Amino acid sequence: MSADDQIKNYQDLLRQYNILNQLSRTVSSTLDLNKILRIILTGVTFGDGFGFNRAFLFLIDREEKKLLGRMAIGPSSNEEAWKVWGEIQQSSFSLEEYLNSEKFDTQTRVSLLDDRIKKLKIPLVKGKVLSLCLEDGIPRNVDLSAGYGSDDS
Asked: Whole-prediction pTM value?
């Protein structure tokens, strides 16, 4: 790895730690669970910090053996994504400033993406990759191009 690559990696890591620091300061200012969850999901999608433009939260229903969609942040279409990205690029908000702004507080309306995620119920089938990850906490890379849709996935 070249010195330039190492510097870039350290800069990316520093930016991510900075985001986590800003998130922790903002989260500690409220006891409202829904606001805390929105703050966290917004943080991982803000600007180019973690490289995500959408974030979903699912909760486990152990009785029904399903993942239930709880919340989603992000655009529901490519057009909306470009619009949002343009607004972020034009603003000079830091993450912490944005999270403490009136704009963040007024964005409680349900988005199309949030509505879609809240309707999702994903069955947890014993022995399948999603269930295995939830049981043992070990992340797995899944190649969807090999056998996508087969019974072995």
From this structure: 0.71
| Tokens (6 digits) for 47 | 């600007």
Across-strand partners of 124?
Answer: none
pLDDT tens-digit readout, 47-100 = 766 778 889 999 999 999 999 999 998 888 888 777 777 776 777 777 777 777
In angstroms, the CA 60 to CA 119 distance is 14
Q: Which among 67, 60, 61, 69 is positioned nearest to 114, based on CA atoms?
A: 69
State the Cα–Cα distance between residues 101 and 93, nearest whole angstrom. 9
CB 118 within 8 A of CB 71: yes
Contact 140, 133 (CB under 8 A): yes
Asked whether the beta carbons of 112 and 60 are under 8 A apart, the reply is no
The sheet with strand 66-73 has its strands ordered as 55-61, 66-73, 121-123
